[in-house]
Amino acid sequence: MENLEIAKVLSQMGDLLEIQDANPFRVRAYRNAARLVDGHAKPMRKLVEEESDLTELPGIGKEMAKHIHELIETGGLSALDELAEKIPRSLIDVIELPGVGPKKAKKLWKELGIETVDELEQRAEAGEVAALDGFGEKSQQKILTGIEQFRQHRSRFKLVEADLLVAPLLEYLRESPEIERLEVAGSYRRRVETVGDIDLLAIASDADAVMERFTSYPKVTQVQMSGSTRGRVSLQSGLEVDLRILTEPSYGAALVYFTGSKEHNIKLRKRAIERGLRLSEYGVFREEGDDQQESGERDPWAGELVAGRSEKQVYAAVELPWIAPELREDRGEVEAAAKGDLPVLLDLADMRGDLQMHSTWSDGKNSIEEMVAACAARGYEYMALTDHSKALAMTGGLDAKRVREQWKEIEEVQERYPEIRILRSQEVDILADGTLDQDDDVLEELDVVVISVHSRFDLPAAEQTARILVALQHAQVDILAHPTGRLINRRPPFELQIDEVLHCAKENGVVVELNAHPERLDLKDTHLMLARELGLKVAISTDAHRARDLDLMHYGVEQARRAWLSKADVVNALPLKEFLQQLRS
After folding, report:
1. Residues 166 and 182 in one domain
2. d(CA 237, CA 167)
3. What span, in angstroms and rounded, lies between the C-alpha atoms of 51 and 330?
4. Which of 87, 110, 133 is the last residue of a domain?
5. pLDDT at 372 over 50
6. pLDDT bucket at 289, cuts 50 / 70 / 90
7. Distance (Å, rounded) from C-alpha 146 to C-alpha 492?
8. For 125-148, how does the pLDDT look when each residue is reduced to its tens digit (9 = 90+)?
9. Are residues 274 and 394 in the same domain?
């Protein structure tokens, strides 16, 4: 099992134990262990293979270490199975709904006999949930909305989850000497923020041997199909994976076809037809005569094969340059390519600094010096340390006095790291009325003022928008962080008139953030495209809460590429002097 799968099981143990009224310290132990495993840089399976002592990890005792070993060795946890005999495991889905949690799930189960999401929906629609103490009409409606979102997202995996699940499968398959080429296609290759399944395309010297290895992958729970050229399996995580074994002459055409999107492919096929060609997953063919047979009846190899070995050949056959996978969404990329107007997309190597991160002064896990050292090690020219303001009390947010105390430590650390500029900054809460949660005299002394919403997500769209517009007009504001407040597959964006917000940011010289954390990716790609059209500058920041989170920057860059952003659109792709001039302007 991968870390995220192990963490999920340990978290489920904590939830069910809380419903059981187990010792709070035991509940907390499981949740702490889940967080540690989920955030650990090295796979637990590797540590087990190396016979490392897991109890040396903070918060991992002997019992927890045994659980991790059992999960890796068997794919299951007997302690969870035993607990599920007393408490319905289906309550785990109920717990994860917005506005529920373990305590309310227990109340729903004990007082209404609700064990599943479907049962909860039925009872909520009948008005029975609102009648329970601690719920009410507003809570009931929130639950119903949450159920709708739950059904939309339950079969979708966040990109970061897919990365963690796909990497070991690719490693396993590439160990096969029969594999000559192996790539991932589909929405995963286009770096869409969530994926439904995975498409693998391979060239193999022995297709049967590769298919046998694929279906024998230890994490496969079900083989849905297994043939000489195509197989489909379900993994322990629920992720479904297709493998297609192709011939070299058609590999490029198949890569184009299975990368998609469907709408992009339709545009390409239309261009092919206009040039007397036929484009399919098998290649680009010159039609023979006036054969008008339906595609289902036509020999897929009929005609002269003119391209198919590589993607560049396929695009060239329809008189286009190669188009980056992230752009293939039918948002004008085909037309731009035909005119020679495709942008030079942003690259990870273009990034000169990170403009949102947290230290132990608020809710970060590493000290200022550790964060600075990590940024310097990544070759950054500058960084902004943005610990929270005081309104976010649960994070240990800083008031004016503590901010100034932090500046002293920043000055001391700066002397030891002359190669990187540490920018004085803070992530300042936007309060309900649009005022900022920090004194104006402090804001004036900061190098970068980052503002964001962390409360009152339930305001109506007009009020939420007005609140942010007021904040954007504050003279000291530089960056609006994670503007829509979403958490992918967990919390929808709050209601907001985003076009008004982006126009106001442009008018007031405020940069909008693309939060690179894969839980957020906020702004989303279509909003970023609107920002680009307005000429609004973007900052890509990791929102790192530990040093290794700085490596999440690539998710932001990938999202930026989907939005057609180039180096010129991103403020922290600028050298330090130009970046500071951009903020001052």
Report:
1. yes
2. 14
3. 50
4. 87
5. yes
6. low
7. 9
8. 999 988 888 888 888 888 888 888
9. no
Strand partners, 430: 436
User: Do 258 and 233 reside in the same domain of the chain?
Assistant: no
Distance of CA 266 to the CA centre of its chain: 28
- Tally the C-alpha atoms within 13 A of residue 446's C-alpha that lie toward its C-beta: 29
Q: Is 240 exposed, middle or buried (0-12, 13-18, 19+ CB in 10 A)?
A: middle
Total domain count, the chain: 5
- pLDDT, mean of residues 415-428: 97
Mean pLDDT of the chain: 93
How many Cβ atoms are within 10 Å of 167's Cβ, its own excluded? 12
HSE toward the beta carbon, residue 221, CA cutoff 13 A: 11
Determine the 3-state secondary structure of 263 from DSSP. helix
- What percent of the chain lies above the pLDDT cut of 70? 98
Q: Residue 287 has what pLDDT?
A: 77
CB atoms < 10 A from the CB of 349, how many?
Answer: 10
| Domain of 522, in residue numbers | 348-584
Read off the tokens for 182.
Answer: 């192996």
Region 328-354 average pLDDT: 97
pLDDT of residue 401: 95
pLDDT tens sequence across 290-315: 544 455 567 888 889 999 999 999 99
> Tell me, what's the pLDDT at 292?
45
For β-strands 277-280 and 179-184, DSSP reports them as unpaired
> Which pLDDT score is estimated for 296?
55
Q: Is 320 helix (H, G, I), strand (E, B) or coil?
A: coil
Position 150 in a domain: no
Note the pTM of the prediction, 2 decimals: 0.87
Confidence of residue 402 (pLDDT cuts 50, 70, 90): very high
| CA distance linking residue 234 with residue 119, whole number of Å | 27
Which among 388, 252, 348, 360 has a CA at the least distance from the CA of 560?
348
β-pair partners for 479: 450, 511
Alpha-carbon span 116 to 297, nearest angstrom: 47
Residues 206 and 256 in one domain: no
Angle at 255 between CA 249 and CA 257, to 5 degrees: 105
Question: DSSP characters for 351-393?
Answer: --EE--B--TTTT-SS-HHHHHHHHHHTT-SEEEE--BBTT-G
pLDDT higher than threshold 70 for residue 79 = yes
Structure tokens at 414: 């700066």
Distance CA 505, CA 493 (A): 18
Do 315 and 379 fall within a single domain? no
What DSSP string describes 445-488?
H-SEEEEE--S-TTS-HHHHHHHHHHHHTSTT--EE-STT--BT
Nearest Cα residue to 219 out of 202, 201, 198, 234: 234
Would you state the pLDDT for residue 186? Answer: 97
